[in-house]
Amino acid sequence: MTADLRHVDTWLFDLDNTLYPAQSGFMGEIERRMTAFVQRVTGLERDEAYRLQKQYLADYGLTLGGLIEHHGVDPAEFHAIFHDMSLEALAHDPQLVAAIARLPGRRLIFTNADEVHARRVLERLSLGHLFEDIFHIGSAAYVPKPAPETFARMNAAHGIAPETAAFFEDSERNLAPAFDLGMTTILVGPHAEASTAPFVRYKTANLSSFLEDAHLKDAAR
After folding, report:
1. Residue 166's beta-bridge partner residues?
2. Which of 91, 193, 212, 216 is the most buried (most CB within 10 A)?
């Protein structure tokens, strides 16, 4: 179904596994580094550290949330483990660059990652110049999506009118509060089409093609 996005003038994009394919394997390296960090902080064996990592993710929306709450971890120390990651797995996609460039209005990144990681990834993808700002986990006072207060903080920071905003995400649960606010929600990724969530307005396995085909108010020049 061709998406009717002629009402949209603010474009919100998640970063990891949304602006590059989940099949890249890049997030796998992020997870491995995270598990090693949990091991170091807790002294647990790898399998138990991985289980705790996932439990904190489920309980707090972000592994870091549990590490802060239960282990007093400094967020800057945690995020620093990702800052020297190789970006070789991320490929420049001219089709996606062109598709995002034609979107009319404001374009913003809305991510649970930190600013350094977000900027590194955007520059690698040749997308950095196309976004007005990055609303990162530090901007959200380390309260991650899908917390409603984080959406409220972002909307206030950028004067966003939800009814004229579209939000692109690979995480289904992060779209629920956006839908409740009145945003147009788009689930991205290889498993998107299988979603039956009532708060997902559109689904696509190919972000570039979806944006190219969408009906827009006025394509940017």
Report:
1. 11, 184
2. 216
**What angle, rounded to 10 degrees, do the helices at 26-42 and 46-60 form?**
100
**According to CATH, what is the number of the domain 26-80?**
1.10.150.450
Alpha helices in 109-147 (DSSP H): 115-124
| DSSP state string for 195-220 | ---TT--EEES-HHHHHHHSEESS--
- How far is the C-alpha of 9 from the C-alpha of 34, rounded, in Å? 36
Please measure the distance between the N-terminal and C-terminal CA atoms of the chain and give it in whole angstroms. 25
| CATH number at 4-21+91-216 | 3.40.50.1000
CA nearest 80: which of 11, 33, 112? 33
- Dist CA 98 CA 102 (whole Å): 6
- What pLDDT shows up at residue 219? 65
Residue found under tokens 């009319």: 104
Q: Which amino acid is at 198?
A: P
Which pLDDT belongs to residue 220?
A: 60
For the record, the structure tokens of 29 come out as 């390296």
What is the pLDDT, as a whole number, of residue 61? Answer: 86
For the chain (length 221 residues), average pLDDT per consecutive 10? 94 97 93 97 97 94 93 96 96 96 97 97 97 97 94 97 98 97 97 97 97 87 51
Domain ranges of the chain: 4-21+91-216, 26-80
